[in-house]
Amino acid sequence: MVLRYLHIFQLVIILFVYGFTVALEKQLLCTSHDIDILYSYCGSGRDTFFFSVEPCLLRDRTEWQGTIFWIPKADLTVVDARIQLWNGPLKALKWESTVCHGVDDDYSYCGTLKGETIKTTVKIRDSHSQYRKLLKGEYIASLEVFTGLKELVTCVNYTLILK
């Protein structure tokens, strides 16, 4: 009887470790002559959030188009976002903002209810050209999205390899 429970325990451990490894596995988002972008979900496994950028170029660009596909785990009435960019142990950038305030919001996905599907595009502009100061190498960009109650509703790590 004890041997049977031991086998079940081993099976549970194997499945847990496999699930955790798959959840943290990096997936290729895009590649070009000046940048490779990979992503992985942080937190509790696979999420229903996907963000891509076109074109997959960094240098000599000031405008991109981002596509968001998301099935949120909470109502998106008040939403805060935090993006941090790391180069090894050094923080290269930190941006925090309230993206949805609950009234007169600028984005179409504000007000989306838990479980509803969001598929939208956004324009991304950079007039400051902060990224031009970045050296070649590997950077980690962490995107965290919180609801008004500071509940983490999505977390994605992007690995940016500047060539």
What does this structure look like?
This protein is mainly beta and 163 residues long. It is 14% helix and 47% strand. It has one helix at 2-24, and strands at 27-31, 35-41, 49-54, 63-70, 79-87, 90-100, 118-125, 137-147, 152-162. Strands 1-2-9-8-5-6 form a six-stranded antiparallel sheet, with no helix packed on it. Strand 5 and strand 6 form a beta hairpin. The longest helix has 23 residues, at 2-24. The protein is globular, with a radius of gyration of 19 Å.
SSE order and pairing:
Blueprint: H1 2-24, E1 27-31, E2 35-41, E3 49-54, E4 63-70, E5 79-87, E6 90-100, E7 118-125, E8 137-147, E9 152-162
Brief description of this entry?
The protein has 163 residues and is mainly β. The protein has one helix at residues 2-24; strands at residues 27-31, 35-41, 49-54, 63-70, 79-87, 90-100, 118-125, 137-147, 152-162.
Count the strands?
Answer: 9
Computed Rg: 19 Å
Poorly predicted regions are 1-23
Shape: globular
Query: What order do the SSEs take from the amino end to the carboxyl end, as H and E?
Result: HEEEEEEEEE
Number of helices: 1
Give the integer mean of the pLDDT values. Answer: 80
Main beta sheet: 6 strands, antiparallel
Task: Looking at this protein, list some descriptive labels.
1 helix; 163 residues; mainly beta; disordered N terminus; three-stranded antiparallel beta sheet; 47% strand; 14% helix
